[in-house]
Design goal:
Keywords: Guanine-nucleotide releasing factor
CATH class of one domain: Mainly Alpha
Pfam family, one: RasGEF
GO molecular function: guanyl-nucleotide exchange factor activity
Shape: elongated
Protein name: RasGEF domain family member 1B
Oligomer: single chain
Organism: Cynoglossus semilaevis (Tongue sole)
Number of strands: 4
Amino acid sequence: IILAIHFKISHNTPRPGQLAKLTCITQPFTVKMPQTTEFKGQLKTSVYNKNLNQNHRDHSLGLCYNDNNLVSGSLEDLIHHLVPTADYYPDRTFIFTFLLSSRLFIRPHDLMSRVCLLCTEQQRLGEPRADKVGLRHLAPKILQLLTDLKELTQRLASGDELYRKAVAQMSQGLIRMLTVLSQYEEALLKINAAAAERLTLVKTKPQGALQRDLMSICNDPFTVAQQLTHIELERLSYIGPEEFIQAFIQKDPLDNDQRGFSKKSRNLGAYIDWFNRLSYLVATEICLTAKKKQRARVMEFFIDVARECYNIGNFNSLMAIISGMNMSPVSRLKKTWSKVKTAKFDILEHQMDPSSNFYNYRTALRGATQRSMAANSNREKIVVPFFSLFIKDIFFLNAGCVNRLQNGHINFQKFWEVAKHVSEFMTWKKVECPFEKDRRILQHLLTTPVLTEDALYLASYESEGPENNMEKDRWKSLRSSLLTRA
């Protein structure tokens, strides 16, 4: 990672001594999420507004403005606009937007080399008798922009102990950041391995796959919703803003990830996997419950969990639960549904109705965002978006607008719109979950086996027999297939 924060846009930086931990079967779940450096001045307007304090040099660059708003420019001119001088520092929103989108046009280390060269040329940093007074004015601005340019920062720091310490602190912060990310990835591998090991029971004994169901561990919907929010916020915290842009880049043909995400955006894929797991977990617990009356209780329990997720602002878990309950093996259980009080579920489905481009959900999301911005406690700041739709919005924005205009300029206005979405995401993911962790619930949610689609259908038919010839044929086929594998 060469392009690091202002460059803290890439990933969160942990507090000193703070390590992120996840659980496997034999370890307690003790996640301590790193804190995101606050991105002040969240991007709100439709385009980047030119810094009124900047000097006249913009007029000599090939940057195009519309009503004093930067809308396009050549890559070279945008890089020039990024580089500070003794009396100029680029607007923070420009820095965020340009660094976020630049990787589509230039590799980060190449960009860093260009910036280093421009700084050296403009300020004559390579000369033995460089102006020390000028360096003192320039150094704080360069250090604010650059974090991992050893040669340049060494020259800047040559005359002042304060700047040498700043360079050392940035290097240590980068190392801590990489360490935490590495630990997170290792922990995910352990969790997935533990879940895969327990899944072997499902392949041979689907009815006995769950030794304990969620309600036997905790029958309080609010507590379960809190633990789901822990998982959501913890996984959100490790998704770097650059991953949304990396997902636009053509995937490496050697990458076997079937979800379409490259290795550089694998945290996005891992988060989508969590959504799918939760949906299948809900369906599994319902379909594996033998008695109709108890199945109805399980359905009502998950409806209550979903409602508590909505109240918290955890829309991703809410949608995953609704998706699980709408899966065909669950929705076909008509006798069970007849015993369920569905009024609350109908309200939740209405809130997440996909019609009119998810109008109801988007309205609720805006309300939660406004509540978060005015909140004083982390409890009221929580906003976990329906993540698949969030990614879809960014993808459509990318596909609907060109990266370059006909004159070869970079379409900066497009990337400003992308940066607005990502900036909002940065605000959401920095919230530290205020709820107390429950190790048993978290272990169950993360590692308990979930049935495949075929196994769900088989369990569903065992609970309520096939109703027509098509279902009878499928039931026979699934039973035969299961016996063959056994």
